[in-house]
Design goal:
Layout (H helix, E strand, L loop, with lengths): L2 H14 L2 H29 L5 H26 L1
C-alpha cells in the first residue's frame, strides 16, 4: 500500500469510529437486518425449524458495514 492509500484508510477508520455515526449504522442495520431476515427466513423463524443462524447474523452485519462505510466516506469527502 502506498503512503497516501494508508493515510486514506486511517482517515476512513477514524471517521467510522465516530460514536454518532456508529449509532446511526446500528439503527440502519437493525431495520434492514430485520426486514432481510423476515424475507429470507420468515417461515423458518416462525416455525422455529431450520433457521440458519450464520445467515441471520450476516443479515445484520452486512447492512451495518455498508452503512458505516458509506457514512464514513461521506464524512471524509465533506472535509
Amino acid at each position: 500500500m502506498s503512503h497516501s492509500t494508508d493515510a486514506s484508510w486511517r482517515r476512513l477508520l477514524r471517521a467510522a469510529a465516530n460514536p454518532e455515526l456508529l449509532r446511526g449504522s446500528l439503527k440502519v442495520a437493525l431495520v434492514v437486518g430485520t426486514v432481510l431476515n423476515a424475507i429470507n427466513q420468515g417461515s423458518a423463524i416462525l416455525e422455529a425449524s431450520g433457521v440458519s443462524w450464520p445467515h441471520v447474523l450476516m443479515n445484520f452485519i452486512v447492512p451495518f458495514c455498508v452503512a458505516t462505510y458509506s457514512a464514513a466516506r461521506n464524512q471524509i469527502r465533506k472535509v
